[in-house]
Amino acid sequence: MTDLTRAAGGPPDRAGATVVVTTVASDSHTWNLVFLQLLLEELGFDVVNLGPCVPDELLVRHCREIRPAAVVISSVNGHGAQDGLRVIRALREDRLTADLPVAIGGKLGVDGGATSHADRLLAAGFDAVFEDGRDSLTAFRRFLNGLDAGGGTALTADEQMGVPA
């Protein structure tokens, strides 16, 4: 067990639980996806990494086929909030993905973190939002642990920033 696994509370039994990792269509970054994949695998999840620049329709199609426990969308280019609103709308409009737990995180805006996008993204249908520059590992773990109980649960803004519930 590595220090990262210990910091995240250890690997509970998640046999068969698959998480889809992806970016928004405009984001071509990959190291963030590799990191998320390794973290999720270390925490006991199976991971399907769709890679960068994933069109919304492709994400929905893969989620319909895979039926994952959750989707984690990472953004580095600063357009996560803008593109995320479109992505979550597409997922929520499809009857097979409408209730799928979906989290988004990373650099969600281009203003250097001066504006929080969490409330708007949560209102649009995301179950969790993890903004760049905030201590989010505890909140991310809480989101993942909620999957074990039969689905993700929306986190409050305080929980997303690591404030204990």
Could you say which structural class the secondary elements and strand pairing correspond to? alpha/beta
Order of helices and strands: HEHEHEHEHEHH
User: Numbering strands along the chain, what is their spatial order in the largest sheet?
Assistant: 2-1-3-4-5
What level of helicity do the residues show?
25-40%
User: Span between N and C termini?
Assistant: 27 Å
Large-scale geometry: globular
Overall mean pLDDT: 83
Strand content: 15-25%
Features:
165 residues, alpha/beta, 5-stranded parallel β-sheet, 5 strands, 16% strand, disordered C terminus
How would you describe what is shown here?
By secondary structure, this protein is of the alpha/beta class. Helix content is 39%, strand content 16%. The protein contains seven helices and five strands. Helix 3 packs across helix 4. The longest helix is centred in the middle third of the chain and has 14 residues, at 80-93. The protein is globular, with a radius of gyration of 14 Å.
